[in-house]
Write a structure and sequence with these properties.
Layout (H helix, E strand, L loop, with lengths): L3 E9 L8 E4 L6 E8 L2 E2 L5 E6 L9 E5 L15 E8 L16 E8 L5 E10 L2 E6 L5 E8 L2 E7 L10 E6 L4 E5 L10 E6 L2 E2 L5 E2 L1
């Protein structure tokens, strides 16, 4: 992990909050409003205005100051505001991977659109502790029929709790060997289940996974 250098606008002498700043003349009776942009984003007090890697080469960022079009000074002359910036070195935060879902102490939530629940979300949440998984569903139907870790795969079989199995079932597979997921319905009964997210330890990693 590589640490980063963050520059934050911590204080403005005439502006407590918001994205419209105020410069004043020496008497304090004449004011002019202005904005600050970091790239294309408007900046407010408390915002990070630049972030750099901890390299020895020179790095730079540009802040753009623009007078508010609706602001007119009462008196001509110099108007100022003191801005205070904080520079801090922060440790990089490691982004979870699918492999983390196989580790003790992990919590993972898999959310999908449910055709028979008017395309609303259903979430299967599972936690691993002491090499054992506990799991739950946000809805009674579909419920989790079985949950298995087999080698590099977590296999979740979901379906409606019909004793005669007439409603079939569908399977969600997470495979850490190739960082992939699949959602299959062998009977084609449920049509398409659209996987919305795979959240591992609070971070959605679905976009980092390949779909089989």
């Amino acid at each position: 992990m590589v640490a980063s250098i963050k520059v934050t606008l911590t204080e403005a002498s005439n502006t407590e909050s918001g994205k419209l700043f105020t410069a004043k003349d020496e008497s304090g009776e004449s004011t002019v409003n202005y904005t600050i942009k970091a790239g294309t984003a408007d900046v407010a007090v408390g915002d990070t205005v630049a972030e750099f890697e901890t390299k020895t080469v020179e790095q730079s960022a540009t802040l753009t100051f623009t007078k508010d079009a609706d602001s007119t000074a009462t008196f001509a002359g110099t108007h100022t505001e003191t801005l205070t910036f904080n520079i801090a070195v922060e440790d990089a935060v490691a982004t979870p991977t699918l492999a983390d879902a196989f580790e003790n102490g992990s919590t993972t939530a898999v959310t999908f659109k449910d055709f028979y629940n008017d395309y609303n979300d259903t979430t299967i949440t599972f936690t691993k502790n002491n090499d054992q998984y506990s799991y739950s569903s946000s809805r009674y139907d579909p419920t989790v029929r079985s949950f298995t870790q087999s080698g590099d795969k977590i296999i979740i079989i979901c379906g409606y709790p019909e004793p005669d199995d007439s409603y079939g079932a569908f399977t969600i597979t997470l495979d850490k060997s190739d960082n992939s997921y699949s959602a299959s319905d062998p009977d084609d009964y449920y049509e398409v289940y659209d996987l919305q997210s795979v959240v591992v330890n609070g971070v959605d990693i679905k976009d980092t996974l390949s779909k089989k």
